[in-house]
Amino acid sequence: MNLIHLLNMAVYGDTPYMVRGGQEDYKRIFYSDQNLALTKPITLIGGFGVIKSGTIMGIVSESTNRAGMYTPYTPEGTAWAGAGLQVAWPGVTYVTSDLAVEKYARVKMEDSYRFQVGDHLCACDTDNTMTDLGAITAIDRTTYSHIAVLTVTNNCATATVAKGAIIYHQQTTSSPFVLAKGALLSSVDTGTGENAKGAQGTLVLSNAILYAGSILGYNSDVETDLGSSLDGKYVILK
C-alpha cells in the first residue's frame, strides 16, 4: 500500500466510488440554422440555480432596480399544478406557510435571495388566480434562522401550502401578470442563496424552428405570447 492510497483512504474512505453530476447542453434546441435566428443578450436574476437551455423566459416588469431583467416564465393560473412543479417551472418560489389576508409571505432562507426590496410580486395556488402583491417593502432574514419574511404592499389572497402556494416576479402589469418573451439559448447558472450573482444569457426571439422536446415550459399561453406555433415535434418562432 503506497502513500497515495493511504491518503485517499484518509480523505475519502476505503470504498471506491464515483460521483457523476448532471449533463447539460448536449441537447440541440435548433432545427433551423441558428445563425438566422433573432436573438438578444439578457441578464438573469440570481438565486434560481441552473436555468436549462430551452427554458421559456419572462421579463421582470416592475421593480425599483431590476425591471428588464429575466426570470423563468411562470404559467398562468392553475396550469402549473402537478408534481415536480419547481422542476417544470423553475421561476416559482414556494412559500413555507399558508398565505393569509395579510401583507407577508414566508419563504426558505435560500430562496429569499431571489428577491430584493422593490421587486413586484404575485401569488397563487392551484385553486385561485394570480394575486398582485405589489412591491416588496422589507425582507426580514434575522428573526428566523431557516425562513425569511417578505413584507409586500398589498394583502395576499388565501393560498395554502397543500395546494402549492407560490410567489413569483410579476412579468407584466396586467392580469394574469405573466408573459413569455422567448427561449433561453444555453444553460446558465444564476447561483443560489446569499452568494447568487445572476447570469448573462441569450434569448431566442424569432425566425427559428426549435425542437419542441427541448423547450421547457411551452404551452398554449406561451404560443399566444410569442406568436409561435407547434407543428409536430417543432416549435416555429415567426
Give the topology, please.
Layout: H1 3-12, E1 38-44, E2 50-51, E3 56-59, E4 70-72, H2 85-88, E5 93-94, E6 104-108, H3 109-112, E7 120-124, E8 131-140, E9 147-152, E10 166-169, E11 180-184, E12 188-189, E13 199-206, E14 208-211, H4 220-226, E15 229-231, E16 234-237
Describe this protein's structure.
By secondary structure, this protein is mostly beta strands. The protein has one domain (34-237). The chain contains 4 helices and 16 strands. It has helices at 3-12, 85-88, 109-112, 220-226; strands at residues 38-44, 50-51, 56-59, 70-72, 93-94, 104-108, 120-124, 131-140, 147-152, 166-169, 180-184, 188-189, 199-206, 208-211, 229-231, 234-237. The strands form 4 sheets. It has a 6-stranded antiparallel sheet. A 5-stranded antiparallel sheet has the order 1-13-11-3-4. The protein has a 3-stranded antiparallel sheet with strand order 14-16-15. A hairpin with a 2-residue loop joins strand 15 (229-231) and strand 16 (234-237). The N and C termini lie far apart (65 Å). Mean pLDDT is 85; it is low at 9-13 and 82-86.
